[in-house]
Design brief:
Length: about 140
Amino acid sequence: MTLKTKAKPKSKARKIPVTPKEKRAAKTVKKATTKKPITVMAETRRNRKLDGKARGRPPKGCAFKDGKLVPGRDAAKVKAIYRMYRRNNSVTLTAKAFKLAHATAHYCLTNPMYVVGHVIPKGEYLEVQKLLQRKTR
């Protein structure tokens, strides 16, 4: 004679997180599985990119007007940085003269957005790039 036993139904109850670490892990898993719709801000950024308009923060000496890059209030300072670098051919001396960090002065000299924003003429920008390349070789 065989005895028939009822099989226990498996419980589908979720494990309740106990420690704060387990709670964070549960939240992370929940966030990873949910899909967020595209936000309005992301859609606006995408449209600005497609329209050829500027995004983000403008470089020193430039400003945005109607989404386009134009010379700003520090444009004269950026022009002076270019002139001084062409005279003394030293980023360090130029940075010290304007009380800027070396990296900031170098960024101003190598950023092509100043040509786009009509702060620096293209010929002057290219001349400075040649001088900078000679220094790094």
